[in-house]
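Hi P.,

Sorry for the delay on this. The queue was packed all week, but I finally got your sequence through. Input first:
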Amino acid sequence: VQLQASGGGLVQTGGSLRLSCEASGFIFDNYAIGWFRQAPGKEREGISCISSSDGSTYYAESVKGRFTISRDNAKNTVYLQMNSLKPEDTAHYYCAAAKTSFQATTVMFQAPGGYLGMDYWGKGTLVTVSS
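Then the structure:
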């Protein structure tokens, strides 16, 4: 099982980046996929996820209206388009997969420590937003 995140980098405030998460080793279509982030000294934060089937999405308030999550099941890939980036978006971004109902997945993204319920994790990609 592998989740390979890419697309991080250094960008100025107001800029954009697109993260990709390519999956292998499991039946991608059966899993909700999402993104967490963790800044130095802070808790891991669930920021967005997308359902396995009907395209339902969840966004944390901190990114709503700026970030867009999408998935391409033919390519086993999930994307996170990040616009209007702010210095507080600076963090390591991790993609993760869960074989649960989408409702249960959104709970994992919102509850403190909920990330512990995710089934698979990728290595992070660093996003740095300069002021």
